[in-house]
Structure formats: C-alpha cells, structure tokens
Amino acid sequence: MTFLDGRRPRIIAHRGLALDAPENSLLAFLRALNAGATHLETDVHASADGVAVISHDPDLGRVAGRSVAVGQLTMPELRRIDLGHGQGYCSLAEALDAFPEARFNIDIKDEASAAPAVEAIRAARAQGRVLITSFSKARRRAVVDALPGVATSPSVSEFAPALLGAKLGIAPLTRRALRGFAAVQVPERRGPLRIVTARSVRAIQAAGAEVHVWTVNDAGDMIRLLETGVDGIVTDRCDVLKALVDTRIP
Fold it and tell me: Catalytic residue at 85?
C-alpha cells in the first residue's frame, strides 16, 4: 500500500470525524474510517519528553480548557487529559499502530516534532502510507530528508511558483516547482486569489501532482470542486463527502 493507492477522489478526514468524538483522537479516526474516509488528516507537536503527539493546537486551551502548552507535558500526562468520550491525547506512534492499514496525512506543526515524527513513522514501518506536509519548508524538509521517497506536499513558499506557472500557462515552471511532490494541498482561495480553478487543476495534474482542497464541509462546494476535477477533499464531514461520492461513482 502507498499513500495514493486506490480510486479517487480521496476522502481525507480532517482530524478524523469529530461529530461524537474529540478531534484528532483515536475514536475520531475510527469514526472517520467507519464512515468511509480513505485518508486521515492529522497534526503533530512534540511533548515534553520528546514524543510526537497528535494535536492541532500548540496548547490545551481550546480542546481541554487548560492554560498549558502541549510541549510542557509528557506523553503520559497528555494521555490522562480528559478530552471527552473516554479519550485523551494520543501519540503518532499509537495512531499508526492502532490503524495499521490507514493512510495518514501528517502536518508537522513545530520544529521539535520533526525528529519524533520520523522515529514513529520508521518504527511503524509506515513510510509508504503517510504524506508529510507543513506550512514551513524547513519543518517539512527535516522529515522528508530523513524518510527518502515518502510522499509530500509543498509548503506555501514552494507552491507559489507552481501556481504562477499554472495561472500563466507556463507548464515547465509548474513541472519544475512540483518535482518530487505527490500532491498539492491548498484552500480553494486565499483572500481575493482563487487558487483552485479547472485550469490550475489541469496544470498541476499535468505536472504529476494531485490536487487536494481543504477544508470543505458544504455539500454544494464538494460537488462543485469534484466537478472541477480535484483529486481529493479535506473535510470535517467525511460522512457527507462519502455519500456524495457514492452517488456519483457506481
């Protein structure tokens, strides 16, 4: 199995399916897979004892109501935090082990989490079923360089030349910018700039990369983007996207 095996579109569950489970928890990931997600999107920070811990936020304020940073607590302490529904924080290693057939889209959220993430992925022999991304080129490269051949998507600065080439119809620029990338993962628009159009999707795909759009929760938007030709959608409602895909693809 590799990260981009299987039929498209990719149904990428943003932090799992958190309708009746805390986001980024083992229960949320289980709910997403049971609802038909093809991929799990998640985020990692580093705990005080150097473990890659699954968490979108750098602190516990929003999800646990505590004024403390993830990096100030050890992994055993984080596991004991009550997130609801019997869930605590889990490590990347635990998630990879709990779902050995699942494909994980992993956002490296801080510099300290890069090395622990590499360790967890290696230990699980999961290099083929993960994709590494980050808003920071340096953080992304720190992991990708340690895992040769792992799937990856560009940071904002790395994607900009590709988008310029796609918008202007300069195919060699887009190909050069996307060399080595399995996918680009972008919002449909950024302020006044519309990133995802039928033209940009075709140009990026012609350069050898898939187009995944985040974070899309409205059914109408999902349909419109699928009609544009995107390869995957990152969503908080993988159940809704799965139902739409099932009606469109026999």
Answer: no
pTM of the model: 0.97
User: Using CA atoms, how far apart are residues 154 and 132, in angstroms rounded to an integer?
Assistant: 9
Is residue 153 within 8 Å of residue 184, measured between CB atoms? yes
- Tell me if residue 14 is catalytic: yes
Note the pLDDT tens digit of each residue in 36-90.
999 999 999 999 999 999 999 999 999 999 999 999 999 999 999 999 999 999 9
Number of domains into which the chain is organized: 1
Terminal C-alpha separation, the chain: 23
Q: What's the domain range around 209?
A: 10-248
Q: Does residue 44 fall inside a structural domain?
A: yes
> Would 2 be classed as within a structural domain?
no
Distance CA 121, CA 174 (A): 30
Residue among 14, 39, 45, 212 flagged as catalytic:
14
Which residue among 39, 45, 56, 212 is the active-site one? Answer: 56
